[in-house]
Amino acid sequence: MARWQNRWLVAALGLALLLPAQAAQADGETNYDAAYCGGPNGSPPPRFSTLIDLPLLFTNILIYTANPSKLYGPKDAWTNWYEESDMRKSLAKLATMRSLLEKSNLWDTYLGWTPSAPACPADAATVRQLDGTCNDLKATYMGGAGVRFGRNMDPSLPAAHADANLMSPNPREVSRLLFTRDEFKPVPFLNMFAASWIQFMVHDWFAHENSGLDFWQVPLASDDPLYRAGQRESMLVPRTAADRSRRASESGLGPTYPNEVTHWWDGSQMYGSDVATAGRLRSFEGGHLVIDASGLLPVAADGFEDTGFRRNWWLGLALMHNLFAREHNAVADMLHASYPAMTDQQLFDKARLIVAAEIAKIHTVEWTPAILPNPSLEVAMNANWFGLNKYLSPKVVRLPSFVPLPYAHVIYGIMGGKRELHQNAATGKDVPFALTEEFVSVYRMHPLLPDALEIHSADTGGIMEIVPLEQTRNADARGIEERYSMRDLLFSFGVTHPGALVLHNYPHVLQNLNIPLLGTLDMGTVDVLRDRERGVPRYNEFRRQLQLKPLASIDALTDDLALRAQLKRVYGNDAGAIERVDLLVGTLAESQRPTCYGFGETAFQVFTLMASRRLQGDRFFTDDFRPEVYTPEGMAWIAQASMKGLLLRHYPELARTGLASVTNAFYPWQ
User: Fold this and answer.
1) Which among 109, 107, 152, 156 has a CA at the least distance from the CA of 257?
2) Is 446 a catalytic site residue?
């Protein structure tokens, strides 16, 4: 370690010779309260000294890497980065946690073979292919639709296999006794855009195919309301469709499943993951998506918007899709004005590329710091996009040649840097990019949804209607859009709150979905069952596999005495009960959460790894995030992009609402 520390001291002196001459004076870290939660205008930005703070930051990373025990409190199982009053230490701990995960928690799920590599078209170097292929110009299958999910743990381990106790405890009883909302628990520092946004993202990232023939039968207790209401003695839940690509030689692996959509952050929820879907949505004029005379996406035969991914439709998704369809067309118009010789196809492809980057930026530097408004996390997410250089004084112009790529990403950001897939320490091989089953699991965020939506007047702020959530789905969503102006609907989402990610806060309608031919389906039951079915381990084992310390007991999970008793009623009161707690239950129950966080550290451990991985592994966010691919005008458009700016571009009348007083549009417009 001493050798590395000495090299960083040399680097610090070298940096002084590589910095602009006018920046001779450097300030250290400003007075910054690490316990202060960012508000609607973000946290006060820190200012780091390049010559003092940057070498110290990297030295701390080396210390924590050599001594991972320092990432935890001295007396418990929880990480402690958020308890550091010195932001340089908290950032170093976050960076160390990510680095350790990158080495050991990225796994390919193809054993001894890879899918066939399709030939790439001539434009693949500069155009995202709709099916996700050819992002990697050598392993062209990588990230494509139909390619398996990866894992964040060794897929050959017993813990990665389907749960042998699939119905124990009964997943319906878990949902009834621990998820059922007793009263709506809101998140006061977020608005409803935060809830609709994450579903908009999830539909871009992943989808499993359900079987139409095979079902799990979840027994219903005699006191279950569904049993008493005449439901069958069991609830039928479609199984996840089997992976038809599995080979006999892979019998040692846990379950594997293909992703129905592309793995990339490419806007596939808007455009689809195949040429036929995109073709159905295009006007084939000026690179545009079809928008009807009312300014909305066209209606399909079932009465609501036709777009790239249409499952689980409700008003929040409708607002997102209509807003970003307008944005796509605005980008296409901008490109046409700058490059009148561009064809319709070129305009469409280039606009897709730019809009996808806008979406990734908004999620990285706005949505994430909004739901996790910790000042250190806000700096870390901005560093992912812009680099720590954003906060350095003086700026780093050039790095010494021996500085490793991960540190270059810290200073300059991932965007436009060198692509990195990461080498698995156990296999010694680069891990092909894929989203993971664990990533899917930690995005089970149904408690964000309320049981009813308030429709407010943007002029008066008054409530015009309260609509039950079940009446905002599918064609009913379109009816609301036609009944009220987009200005009122967008304003309503800006001033109302989503639900907290805690137990006893699951929306009632999602526990009572009426599914033709199946009867009533409880999504809380499905959420629990899916993790068990797909080989995602239960809470405590999940923590072990993700390099977190396991908890000693249910009592260590929550300080709430009543909740402890409820958990023990479901999972048992013996010493091994904590090992039976389901992943979703554990993550919602965690009372020890990083300061200001909307959820706990167990789910965050996956975000720590995959939030960066989604950018690092994508050629169009790294090697080819440059003007030659995006156009100079496209790069400028992305540079100024924000959720607030996008809303005001398409609905400028919102400037007369509380949106004008916030920087981050995911905070309440008040």
Assistant:
1) 109
2) no
**CA 170/CA 173 separation, integer angstroms:** 5
What pTM did the predictor assign? Answer: 0.95
Q: How far apart are CA 206 and CA 199, in angstroms?
A: 11
Taking only the tens place, the pLDDT of each residue in 564-622 is 999 999 999 999 999 999 999 999 999 999 989 999 999 999 999 999 999 999 999 99
Q: How far apart are CA 146 and CA 395, in angstroms?
A: 44
Question: What whole-number percentage of the chain has pLDDT above 90?
Answer: 89
The residue from 203, 409, 422, 497 that is catalytic is 203
Residue 411 vs residues 29, 48, 304, 399, 523: alpha-carbon distances, Å:
16, 12, 45, 9, 43
d(C-alpha 520, C-alpha 470), whole Å: 13
* SS3 category, 431: coil
Which residue, chain included where needed, has tokens 């039950």?
A: 468
Q: How many CB atoms lie within 10 A of CB 201?
A: 19
Q: What angle, 0 to 180 degrees and rounded to 10, lies between the N-to-C axes of helices 344-362 and 643-650?
A: 130
Q: Scanning the structure block, which residue is given the tokens 């017993």?
A: 158
The DSSP symbol for 388 reads: G
**CB 438: neighbour CB atoms within 10 A?**
28
Mean residue pLDDT across the chain: 93
- Measured CA to CA, the distance from residue 168 to residue 174 in angstroms comes to 9
Dmax (CA) of the chain:
79
Residues 6+ apart with CB under 8 A from 120: 129, 133, 134, 137, 140
The whole-angstrom separation of Cα 472 and Cα 81 is 41
Q: What are phi and psi of 476, to 5 degrees?
A: -65, -30
Residue 1 has pLDDT above 80, yes or no: no
pLDDT per residue as tens digits for the range 29-56: 222 233 568 888 888 899 999 999 999 9
Which among 409, 426, 540 is positioned nearest to 108, based on CA atoms?
Answer: 426
Cα gap 670→667, rounded to integer Å: 9
